[in-house]
Amino acid sequence: xxxxxxxxxxxxxxxxxxxGNVQKVLxxxxxxxxxxxxxxLIAALEDVDIDEAIxxxxxxxxxxxxxxxxxxxxxxxxxxxxxxxxxxxxKEEEAAAGLGALFG
Length: 104
Known about the structure:
Blueprint: H1 2-12, H2 19-29, H3 35-45, H4 50-103
């Protein structure tokens, strides 16, 4: 993950994301540097628009968080409706039991 963080830091500061710069950032942070992982990162980011990727990630992360609060009231309403239905059913059963006692 630190390799991705290094690339994001370089991007944010306007530096070129290349093997040398990623290595410098990782060494400055005290991380163990693996040249193969740096090369793989640079190759993976070659055709990626980082700004667009960050924007998509931010939108995706925000969507579930925004949907969660609205789901809670809906669930509470459903519970209330179920309780009301159960309450009505119980009353009907009690009434039927009472009538049964009259004719029983």
